[in-house]
Amino acid sequence: MAEQDDEPVGWEAVLGESLARELREQGRTTPLPPWLRYPEIPRYSIHWRMGAGESYLMAWWQWAEGRGAEEKTAYFREFAPIQIEWVDWVGMQIRDDLEDDENASFDDLIRKYGEAIADLGLYDVAAFQAYLKGDEKSE
Fold first, then answer.
1. What does the DSSP 8-state code read for residue 66?
2. Which of 65, 83, 105 represents a domain boundary (last residue)?
3. Would residue 1 count as lying in a domain?
4. Which residue of 2, 60, 70, 95 lies most exposed, with the fewest beta carbons within 10 A?
């Protein structure tokens, strides 16, 4: 039996190919943020945890990996103001140095990551605060 010269394709290669395909399709050197790639899909939809949305996020993270907070901030400035529903996600991408609190509620985490980037001018802070208050009232 002949030996295979090809090594099995790893996740890094698959994600790299996915990212390259997205960049070609978008005609860009950086991927669109998820809310612009799939504007019809709500922030907390299952779409982002399976299927095309999950695949897109994985390709996006492939691009973002190894980039520092300053580079990511500059990237997100291109798309400012950030949609309010995505502020916490953007905060998680920029401020990956924040300590996790296992006891924090979902709303606490949204607030924490949004407030962590409030001084960067990426979103309407007053609108984000109103969004948080609206979420708290609906509980």
1. T
2. 65
3. no
4. 2
pLDDT tens digit sequence for 103-117: 889 899 999 999 999
Give Cα separations from 47 to 26, 38, 51, 130, 136 (angstroms): 20, 10, 6, 26, 24
Contacting residues for 112 by C-beta, under 8 A, at least 6 apart:
88, 91, 98, 101, 104
Residue 90 and residue 119 in one domain:
yes
Residue type for position 63: W
DSSP string, 62-79: HHHTT--HHHHHHHHHTT
Kindly state whether residues 73 and 44 are assigned to the same domain.
no
Strand segments (E) across 1-139? none
88 and 51 in a single domain? The answer is no
> What's the confidence (pLDDT) of residue 139?
39
Residues 75 and 30: beta-carbon distance below 8 Å: yes
pLDDT in tens, 14-55: 888 999 999 999 999 999 999 999 999 999 999 999 989 999
pLDDT of 5: 52
Angle between helix 106-116 and helix 87-94 axes, rounded to 10 deg: 60
